[in-house]
Amino acid sequence: IPGPRGNTLAKYGGRHTVTVMPGDGIGPEMIGHIRTLMKYCNAPVNFEEVQMTSTPYDGDMEEVIYAIERNGVGIKGNIETKFDDPAFSSRNVELRRRLDLWANVLHCVTIPTVPSRHKDIDIVLIRENTEGEYSGLEHESIPGVVESIKIVTQDKIERVARFAYEYAVLNGRKKVTTVHKANIQKLGDGLFLQIAQEMAKEYPSIEFDQMIVDNACMQMVSRPQQFDVMLMPNLYGNIISNIACGLVGGPGLVSGMNMGDVHAVFEPGTRNTGTGLAGKDIANPTAFLRAGIDMLRYLGCHKHANVISDALWQTLTEQGIHTSDIGGSAKTSEVVEATLRNMERMLPRYQ
Ligand code: ADP
Ligand code: MG
């Protein structure tokens, strides 16, 4: 992960403290599974749990923000956003904006045993995470006429574009494709494209490519293997990320990282609550478990990250233990149990 950060990580007695926000839906039970696996391999992580759900109480957002500022790291479930109430804006968006978590990163990779239309997908999706259509500025000028303001700024485009190119270099990637609609949004998306194109000159080892968002959607579903790293403004990034997650098996598989200059928050990539699955022991825990693995890597706990990651991979591939969303009949707890047994066998090799 590129960029200056990590200096604010809370560490006492050799253990990290991370802020946990279980959120709504399946969040709380999934966080429970993450804790079980981390404890099993003695990951040096303490959890400080703070509540933030779709039912706000006075000061809960401040409490969450203080806790993440103190610890430097958070892991979260999604918070339900009611969209029939204009006064209720997304608390997930507010959190990202207040902590200035400006880059969203998803890594979508084909899992060999998971049924999917396409094979060999390996795409890193990097999305501007704070502005654009998510500026939250809307008003009804006169009855029946609404203005929704999309704001883009040079600084914020530059930092996320820089992140994408640096990420590509650090991770041995070959190409960064910038997604835009500069043919219609000539100024806003034009600026995004222009900055990405200019900056590409500083990275001669990385191929520059650009694609209009509608074509990018079509290319994603017809020939996704052509993509390597994708750099996207906020809303297009949201949509394309969900297409990518769908292509590799749906909302239960992919994790997402929200990175700022000094703080990071980890969550499932498609940001679903899975409210309909809560309490039934049927949700796919992979996306959440991978968020936990990402967090361990961020904290520098590579051995712990590797053992959980390899054990989970074995569960999903060699053992083919799948929840119903990816064509199996296993319960959530069976995936977790199998992963624990795999860890038990592997652990001596990871000491
Ligand atoms: P809801 O909150 O109505 O359950 P979401 O928007 O949270 O819906 O999720 C979209 C869809 O993805 C739903 O069908 C949900 O059941 C499914 N889904 C979300 N998370 C998971 C998961 N971890 N495992 C399996 N299916 C999931
Ligand atoms: Mg939901």
TrEMBL record:
PROSITE patterns: IDH_IMDH. GO terms for biological process: isocitrate metabolic process; tricarboxylic acid cycle. Keywords: Mitochondrion, Transit peptide, Tricarboxylic acid cycle. The keyword Transit peptide applies. One of its GO terms (cellular component) is mitochondrion. It is found in: Mitochondrion. GO terms for molecular function: magnesium ion binding; NAD binding; oxidoreductase activity, acting on the CH-OH group of donors, NAD or NADP as acceptor. It comes from the Eukaryota. Pfam families: Iso_dh (PF00180). Its main location: mitochondrion. Residues 17-339 form the Isopropylmalate dehydrogenase-like domain. NCBIfam families: mito_nad_idh (TIGR00175). PANTHER family: DECARBOXYLATING DEHYDROGENASES-ISOCITRATE, ISOPROPYLMALATE, TARTRATE, ISOCITRATE DEHYDROGENASE [NAD] SUBUNIT, MITOCHONDRIAL. Belongs to the isocitrate and isopropylmalate dehydrogenases family. This is Isocitrate dehydrogenase [NAD] subunit, mitochondrial. It comes from Pristionchus entomophagus.
